[in-house]
């Protein structure tokens, strides 16, 4: 329904919808005068925001689109992203160009006989550590792949039309509908003291979304992400070093399962790199740090996985200067739209990896 709202704002002069979650009627107004094109502010220039800009500009090139990013440049974490069959189909429906961009950076399992295997599930600890538990296969011939998030975003940026504006260093602090200065417009205010007046605002600013808090209200139980009770160590390492450490099996997607944790690996960058994430249960310890990502050490990492099998430990030893990532989740929001303001992507429905 939120996607329908976005495209309704982009293509219709007036649109009514009944949001099933909150049971309220939303009226969306759009300025469709011939001398002033519809203006939309997209908050966040990550994968979701850039994809949305490509999609909307493709459906209606007359829309005036601007991406507002809080950081000083386009950026993504050094990690992998994998898309399932439904996501790939949705991506193709949005724009075949986006699918083509993903195809240029995606990496499948490197062994042909493992092409349709989602993961080899292995014991991570105990007397059978390293042995196979099961081979989890995909359905209907789907070939699971992973990609570098940074490489995928770079390809998406190349697809942005020149008509799409991009402004960096813009951290949103407020979104107000029914602007007094410009009736029918929505005002967006930024931390640097600037503001814009647009017809619609779409928040794509991730799991720590300011747009979500503004839309729902600071006191709403669904406004902020909640700690999942788990954390993870992430790293991209050289594939040749990983093969030397544990053998060629690591050229295919692996999951090592153990007591209170698991280690996930997948090839990226055409098999030249290995994306690795080691998940750990915090055993009820709350996350008290303000930052969600904090520096750690190899000693602390190995201490967390003490007693695990030889292969698991050898993989973890490849991680230099590890960072500890708190894993947060979002409870379902009572609504994802308010007037001409809505949220999308992780800002709307983020979950743990």
Automatic annotation (TrEMBL):
Highest taxon, organism lineage: Eukaryota
GO terms assigned for molecular function: FAD binding; oxidoreductase activity
Residue ranges that the Swiss-Prot or TrEMBL entry lists as coiled coil: none
BP GO annotations: secondary metabolite biosynthetic process
Pfam family, one: FAD_binding_3
Keyword Transmembrane: yes
Ranges that cross the membrane: 37-56
Keyword Plastid on entry: no
Keywords per UniProt: FAD, Flavoprotein, Membrane, Oxidoreductase, Transmembrane, Transmembrane helix
Domain FAD-binding: 165-353
Protein name: 6-methylsalicylic acid decarboxylase atA
